[in-house]
Amino acid sequence: MPWVLLLLMSLLCAGWLVHHMRRWRLPLRRLRKTLLLIRRGEAPIAELSQITGPLASFRKILQELLRELRQSKVELAICQHEMRQRIAQRTDALERLVGSLRQQANRDPLTGLYNRRMLDQYLSTIVQRAQAAEADLSLLMLDLDNFKALNDTLGHAAGDELLRTVGQLIRSSVREQDLAFRYGGDEFVIVIPDHGYTIGHAVKHRLCSLVDQLGRTLKTTPSLGISAGLACLSEFSDCSPRGLLLEADKRLYETKCSRKGEVRASAA
């Protein structure tokens, strides 16, 4: 009968669909779910061993691919970590090199003091800052006496060693916030912020005494010494940085002339 045949065919189709779902669709769903869990790190690759049916033949290939992918990710992470470390090390080395070059550009290589270029750059800033804060500031200019005679007698190597020693004496005689410069040849400048004549004179006296003592050990004729000129911001109602430097230089010259006069008088 036709309806019996139709029913039979319907039953056969239903059976085929159930078989198809059991054989393919359900394993595919399970495979997809398992792969998602493995991808998120919520299941081990070995979980694929639970896949059965016709997809079981792909199980080993998928496991190998996933293990290779995971190993590649580990190797990539290691390479990235090593690369970041190398970049950080090179960046640090580069920063140290730049800092060293900047330091060399601002420092006198012989004495270790700041150089004249640094003084020209920052003197205006230092003075203007003191004027804005209504604070005092003292500037010392120093010049070695009879330095040429020492060079001529003991040689330039001895002269360089003396300049290094004077640089050390200056660094040991000033505070951390004070700025000391090699102005040129055998001339030096010391800027003492926040302090006027009293502290400036004390630093001047200490350095003159130390260099005079050093000069007596060198046994040169005429003996080595140092002259200094001191100028303070509070002495002037309105003084430019250049004017302060020139005033200290003028007083240095007067001191040097006075010392030479004293030497001539004692020799006579």
The total of helices stands at: 7
Taken in chain order, the helices and strands follow as HHHEHHEEHEH
Decide which structural class fits the backbone: alpha+beta
Q: In order across it, which strands form the biggest sheet?
A: 2-3-1-4
Alpha carbon gap, first and last residue: 155 Å
User: Could you tell me the mean pLDDT?
Assistant: 79
* Rg over C-alpha atoms, rounded to the nearest angstrom: 43 Å
Large-scale geometry: elongated
CATH fold call of the largest domain: Alpha-Beta Plaits
Number of domains: 2
Major beta sheet summary: 4 strands, antiparallel
CATH domain class of the largest domain: Alpha Beta
> Could you tell me the number of beta strands?
4
User: How much helicity do the residues have?
Assistant: 55-70%
Unreliable segments of 5+ consecutive residues = none
Write the layout of secondary structure elements.
Elements: H1 2-39, H2 56-106, H3 116-132, E1 137-145, H4 147-154, H5 156-173, E2 179-184, E3 187-193, H6 197-218, E4 225-232, H7 241-267
Descriptive overview:
This protein has 268 residues and is α+β, with helices and mostly antiparallel strands. The chain folds into 2 domains: 2-76, no CATH class; 116-267, Alpha-Beta Plaits (2-Layer Sandwich). It has helices at residues 2-39, 56-106, 116-132, 147-154, 156-173, 197-218, 241-267, and strands spanning 137-145, 179-184, 187-193, 225-232.
Quickly describe the structure:
This protein is an alpha+beta fold and 268 residues long. The chain contains 7 helices and 4 strands; from the N terminus they run αααβααββαβα. The chain has 2 domains: 2-76, no CATH class; 116-267, Reverse transcriptase/Diguanylate cyclase domain (Alpha-Beta Plaits, 2-Layer Sandwich).
